[in-house]
From TrEMBL, chain A:
One of its GO terms (biological process) is SRP-dependent cotranslational protein targeting to membrane. Involved in targeting and insertion of nascent membrane proteins into the cytoplasmic membrane. Acts as a receptor for the complex formed by the signal recognition particle (SRP) and the ribosome-nascent chain (RNC). It is a peripheral membrane protein. This is Signal recognition particle receptor FtsY. The gene is ftsY. It comes from Alicyclobacillus ferrooxydans. Its EC number is 3.6.5.4. InterPro entries: AAA+_ATPase, P-loop_NTPase, Signal_recog_particl_SRP54_hlx, SR_rcpt_FtsY, SRP/SRP_N, SRP54_GTPase_dom, SRP54_N_sf.
Amino acid sequence: MGLFDKFKRGLAKSRDALFGRLTGLFHGRKLDEALYEELEEVLLAADVGFETAMWLVERVRRLAREQKATDGSELPGLLQQAMEEALEDNDPSMKVAETGPSLYLFVGVNGVGKTTSIGKLAHHFKAEGKKVLVAAGDTFRAAAIEQLMEWGNRSGVDVIRHTQGADPAAVIYDAIAAARARSADVILCDTAGRLHNKANLMAELAKIHKVVERELPGAPHEVLLVVDGTTGQNALLQAKSFLEVANVTGMIVTKLDGTAKGGVLLPIVREFHIPVKWVGLGEQMDDLEPFSPKAFAEAICQAPESAS
Amino acid sequence: MLEGLSNNLQKALSKLKSKGKLTESDVQEAMREVRLALLAADVNVRIVKQFVDKVRERAIGQDVQKSLTPGQQVVKIVHEELTELMGGSEERLRMAAKPPTVVMLVGLQGAGKTTAAAKLALSFVKHQHRPLMVAADIYRPAAIHQLEVLGGQINVPVFQMGTDVDPVTIATSGIEEARKQGADVVIIDTAGRLHVDAPLMEELARIHQAVPADELLLVIDAMTGQDAVHVAESFSQALPVTGVILTKLDGDTRGGAALTVRAVTGRPIKFVGLGEKIEALEVFHPDRLASRILGMGDVLSLIERA
Ligand SMILES: Nc1nc2c(ncn2[C@@H]2O[C@H](COP(=O)(O)OP(=O)(O)OP(=O)(O)O)[C@@H](O)[C@H]2O)c(=O)[nH]1
Ligand SMILES: Nc1nc2c(ncn2[C@@H]2O[C@H](COP(=O)(O)OP(=O)(O)OP(=O)(O)O)[C@@H](O)[C@H]2O)c(=O)[nH]1
Ligand SMILES: [Mg+2]
Ligand SMILES: [Mg+2]
């Protein structure tokens, strides 16, 4: 299976809903104003947001002029180019500590897929031959610790935990000590879901961030904001707030195996320069893929049969 | 909640409010801004179009009412159409003539079903009912444990059969257990699933066939974007959904889902979730929310009197 086969398969449903329609709609028509207006609507329906939709349509218009494209059937290809350009600077690589363990902190609003993504990444890093530790930093939600332990069992990775109600910073402190003692390579830290407009919870996150910085120089090596791919424009507010308190360095966009297009990642990357590192495409251990702008744009823009 | 939409709509309409006379271009301009405000709030593109067309048509063709300026009349029209879009008046849960009343919760992953199960259970307890929660999610890691912890917090029993039994069997056994215990309400928590996952959607239909629910509630995250329309359509086509619970409205959500879901399913939003705490559930009032969105207490009371 090629690197992005699953990604494309996962997005096939989105594609059917979006550009299955697109290709059908635009085939045999002239590239004119009416068509661009329809393109804007299609983009809005993909959660791209008004400004980025306008930006993309403008890019497509320019590309069409440059390439002297006149036929509607060329639109998906042009849009793909425009999207790839919008995501040009997206660097999906994960920063690694020069010495000692790399610590990755996972943050986000409730129910987006933080714990599940940690389970998947624990498996991923372990398969790369790394020694992985997971810190059960969500001490708030009912059965959050048990959920993470079940993921630990699946991938054969140790989970550092306290009991429900404990101080999350203390759990992560312990995980750092354990990682040193056991010479672990990677520490994945779960945190409780919190809405970005709850000041006290955001302050708690800032505190966790500070403890990590103090206890492990250079850490956190990545702060990953997990965003539910079905989220609309609210995701922009999430990115802004989490960026402020926890210095977010990357994104994981989950649940792209449904009909949601995850289009909101485009304005987030454009406005906040937070790169997408991974995408979630299901509930199983292997359902996580590194993000590729090309695969994303192609999977969204091209009809299934022409996707190579 | 809904501040963004509220601010933008108010901005769009404030210019009209003070005008004594409205030209067609005044209305066009305002409708353009209303459109953008609704889109920024994640209201479905299709619905935005219908909404704006309807308001525009009514606004241009309006009869002159002496007590209101034309601008105020447009506000009144928007308010009426918003309320209508969200379903008119509030709706309560339907109780079975012969107990136990069965309530089943369905929805996408992470929408808030398990939390909503406990919230509903607590509200039933407060109304002198004896609920039993049934753990029919055999897929998500520690789902049963989560329901048991929540049940423990509110002293509501949880029925479970582990993760190796078919959810249909768990549901039917749960009803038997409720009869045995004398519980008069059964709340079934199901696993999150995608609306395009045919086998899992089929599983819900089988559960509903075995234990017909008096209330089959679709749980939807209020932060959902344009996809809300697909989710609402698919679930309500596959199952006889009776109502909606909209969760996480305590965020600064744009709330488009609230405006979209009712229009798509034709089913009322019955409750809203306003936090992670088990008490954080409220009955949904469409008219109040519409007023809050428009945030025009003075104008609205004027309109009510007109
Ligand atoms: N279909 C699909 N489901 C996913 C994906 N990622 C996570 N989920 C599901 O989404 C639900 C919530 O995932 P969690 O990992 O518990 O989310 P969380 O962010 O840790 O949630 P809280 O800790 O409660 O804030 C679970 O049912 C997961 O199985 C994905 O990529 N695709
Ligand atoms: N802020 C807020 N959080 C909520 C609300 N309702 C649920 N949550 C949180 O959202 C997350 C997911 O809730 P669950 O009840 O586990 O969702 P679910 O639909 O059962 O998830 P799955 O079983 O994985 O499909 C948890 O962190 C809850 O605490 C709400 O109204 N407001
Ligand atoms: Mg979690
Ligand atoms: Mg659940």
